[in-house]
Amino acid sequence: MPYVNIKITREGATAEQKRQLIEGATRLLVEVLGKNPATTVVVIDEVDTDNWGIGGVPVTERRRSEGQPPK
Amino acid sequence: MPYVNIKITREGATAEQKRQLIEGATRLLVEVLGKNPATTVVVIDEVDTDNWGIGGVPVTERRRSEGQPPK
Amino acid sequence: MPYVNIKITREGATAEQKRQLIEGATRLLVEVLGKNPATTVVVIDEVDTDNWGIGGVPVTERRRSEGQPPK
Amino acid sequence: MPYVNIKITREGATAEQKRQLIEGATRLLVEVLGKNPATTVVVIDEVDTDNWGIGGVPVTERRRSEGQPPK
Amino acid sequence: MPYVNIKITREGATAEQKRQLIEGATRLLVEVLGKNPATTVVVIDEVDTDNWGIGGVPVTERRRSEGQPPK
Amino acid sequence: MPYVNIKITREGATAEQKRQLIEGATRLLVEVLGKNPATTVVVIDEVDTDNWGIGGVPVTERRRSEGQPPK
C-alpha cells in the first residue's frame, strides 16, 4: 500500500529508466518493510526546468550557466 | 479550506468526468465535515502510464499484457 | 489505482468521519471513472491550524478572531 | 533543505514570473528560518483549468461565467 | 535535485529501516539517472491507519478483520 | 486559488515564524501573479529529522556528525 512519488526535472528520462525507477522503488519497500508489491504505487512527476528552482535559480538558468543546452 | 488532490493515470478522462470528480469531492467534504465549498480546492493530476507503476511494473506494460491499446 | 490525498486542518475529525471520507472518495472514483476500488488509495493528512494559512493568516488566528476556541 | 511546492492554474505564467516565484520562495525560507538556499528546492506545478476546482466548479467554467476567455 | 516522497502507514517503521529507505531511494536515483546524491531529498510521511484507506476501508479496520492488533 | 506546500524538518519553527512563512508566501503570489489572497492556501508540513534524508543520510545523523544536538 505504500505510495512513492518521485519528482525529477524533465530532462530526457527514457521509458526504460522510468521502468527501472518504478521497479527499484517497489523492490526497496518490499525488502526494507516487507510491503506487498501488488498494492505499492509509484508515481513519477517530470517537471519543466523553468518550474524547478534550487538556490533560488531556475534549473534552466543553471544549465545555461553550466554551458549545457536545455533538453 | 480543504485541499483534495486526485492523481489518476492519463487515460482519457473527459472534461465532464473531471467536473464530476470536482463536484463530488467538494460535496463529500461539505456533507461529512461541514466544510465551506467556496474555499475547498480540488486538483486533479493526470499522469502518463509510463510514469505510474503498480506491482513494480509501469501501467503501460500492464495494459499491453492485458491486451489493451495504450490510450 | 487512483491516489486521493485529502488535506484538512486538525480540528477534531472523528475516526468515523474519516472512514466516510475514505469510503466516499473511493466510491466517487468507481462511479465516475470505473476505477478498481481494491487498488484505490485514499490518504488523509490532518494539519495543525498554526500550519495552515488562508488569506495570509494562520487558521489559529482566524478561529480566534471568529471567537472560536482552538480545537 | 526545505521543499516548496507551488501549485497554480496553467494561465500563462511567464518564465520570468516563475523565476520570481522561485527566487522569492527561497529568500522567504532564508529570511524566516535561516535555511541554506543551496539546498532549498522550489517546484511549480501548473494545472489545467479543467483539472482545478473551487466551490465544486472547474476553473474553466468559472472563467467562462466571469466572461474571461480561457488562456 | 530529485525529490522523493515515500508515504507509508504508521506501523512501527524503525529509525534504521527509514535510514535504509533514504539510502536506497537516493542510490536508485544515482544509479538510474546519474543524479547528484548531495541534492537528492527523500521525505518519509508516516500516516495513521485511520487516515489511510484502500478498497474504501481504513487500514485500521482491515487490520482488525485480518486479526492483527493495531500497532 | 494557489496552493503552496512548504515542507521543513521539525526543528523548532515557532508559531510566529510559521505565520511569517504563510504571510510571505501569500504576498509572493499576490505580487508576482496578482492572485487573490482570500483563496490562497499555504500548508506547512514539519517532518521528523529521522524521516528526512539528503545525500542518502537522515538529517538526524547529519546533525549528530555536525555536533548539533537533535531539537
UniProtKB/TrEMBL annotation, chains A, B, C, D, E, F:
Gene3D superfamilies in the cross-refs: Macrophage Migration Inhibitory Factor (3.30.429.10)
Enzyme class: isomerase
UniProt catalytic activity: (2Z,4E)-2-hydroxyhexa-2,4-dienedioate = (3E)-2-oxohex-3-enedioate
Keywords: Aromatic hydrocarbons catabolism, Isomerase
Catalytic residues (UniProt): P2 (proton acceptor)
GO molecular function, one term: isomerase activity
EC code(s) of this entry: 5.3.2.6
Superkingdom of the source species: Bacteria
Domain 4-oxalocrotonate tautomerase-like positions: 2-61
SUPFAM superfamilies: Tautomerase/MIF
InterPro entries (UniProt xref): 4-OT, 4-OT-like_dom, Tautomerase/MIF_sf
Entry function: Catalyzes the ketonization of 2-hydroxymuconate stereoselectively to yield 2-oxo-3-hexenedioate.
Protein family: Belongs to the 4-oxalocrotonate tautomerase family.
Subunit comment: Homohexamer.
NCBIfam families: taut (TIGR00013)
Name of the protein in question: 2-hydroxymuconate tautomerase
Organism: Azotobacter chroococcum NCIMB 8003
